[in-house]
């Protein structure tokens, strides 16, 4: 059962073709830690089909009359293809991510999705990582590419892929609730690393 530990909120954006486990692992760790996290479908259909043909039903959609990007403290972009392409083609989402980052609010992305941040110019001169197949996009857009599993540079948090999503989720828990909460979450999931 969800026990809310903070008023801070996270929006995880689900586009058709996403890597569902990248999204759900991070959402799960936030949920376990008491951090409100909405699964937000890009568009008007709550049911989103992943790159592995798994259907996920989201909590809300960007087309909802009462949806506002400003209601969230963290915007999270999962990877996957063509999910990442679909995220990057949403002008509304890209405008919101740019504004969120410019306001000093947290933006997180994993796998291919950091390439969206790079193309928006948000990673220029910043430390970042992504799936190795997309690190050239980061470098071409001025990022200082790291091979670390999770890279936090100010309000931008990037991660390499599904295998690093537990660490990404823990990093977000740590940012929102602190080290003790992250350690408690590690214990709950029997994190062995």
Task: List the defining traits of the structure above.
193 residues, alpha/beta, Rossmann fold, 7-stranded mixed β-sheet, two-stranded antiparallel sheet, 34% helix, 20% strand, globular
Topology overview:
Elements: E1 10-14, H1 20-32, E2 37-41, E3 47-49, E4 55-57, E5 60-61, E6 74-77, H2 83-88, H3 91-102, E7 106-110, H4 114-119, E8 127-128, H5 135-140, E9 144-145, E10 150-153, E11 156-159, H6 165-177, H7 179-188
GO cellular component, one term: cytoplasm
Protein name: 4-methyl-5(B-hydroxyethyl)-thiazole monophosphate biosynthesis
Domain DJ-1/PfpI: 8-174
Quick recap of the structure?
Helix content is 34%, strand content 20%.
Oligomer: single chain
Task: Work out the helix count.
Answer: 7
Q: What is the total tally of β strands?
A: 11
CATH topology: Rossmann fold
Spatial order of strands in the largest sheet = 5-2-1-6-7-11-10
CA radius of gyration: 15 Å
Largest β-sheet summary = 7 strands, mixed
Overall shape: it is: globular
InterPro entries: Class_I_gatase-like, DJ-1, DJ-1/PfpI, Prot/Nucl_acid_deglycase
Domain DJ-1/PfpI: 8-174
Protein name: 4-methyl-5(B-hydroxyethyl)-thiazole monophosphate biosynthesis
Pfam family, one: DJ-1_PfpI
Describe this structure in words.
The structure is a single chain. With 193 residues, this protein is an alpha/beta fold. The chain has one domain: Class I glutamine amidotransferase (GATase) domain (Rossmann fold), CATH 3.40.50.880. The chain is built from seven helices and eleven strands. It has a seven-stranded mixed sheet. The mean pLDDT is 97. This is 4-methyl-5(B-hydroxyethyl)-thiazole monophosphate biosynthesis. Pfam families: DJ-1_PfpI (PF01965).
């Amino acid at each position: 059962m969800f026990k809310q530990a903070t008023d801070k909120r996270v929006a995880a954006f689900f586009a058709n073709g996403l890597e569902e486990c990248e999204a759900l692992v991070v959402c799960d760790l936030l949920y376990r830690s008491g951090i409100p996290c909405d699964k937000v479908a890009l568009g008007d259909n709550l049911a989103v089909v992943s790159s592995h043909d798994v259907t996920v039903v989201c909590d809300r959609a960007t087309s909802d009359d009462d949806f506002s990007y400003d209601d969230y403290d963290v915007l999270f972009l999962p990877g996957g293809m063509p999910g990442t392409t679909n995220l990057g083609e949403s002008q509304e989402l890209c405008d919101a991510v740019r504004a969120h980052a410019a306001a000093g609010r947290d933006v997180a992305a994993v796998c291919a999705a950091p390439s969206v941040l790079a193309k928006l110019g948000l990673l220029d001169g910043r430390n970042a990582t992504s799936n190795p197949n997309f690190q050239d996009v980061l470098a071409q857009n001025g990022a200082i590419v790291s091979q670390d599993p999770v890279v936090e540079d100010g309000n931008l948090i990037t991660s390499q892929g599904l295998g690093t999503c537990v660490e990404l989720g823990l990093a977000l828990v740590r940012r929102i609730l602190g080290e003790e909460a992250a350690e408690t979450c590690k214990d709950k999931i029997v994190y062995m690393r």
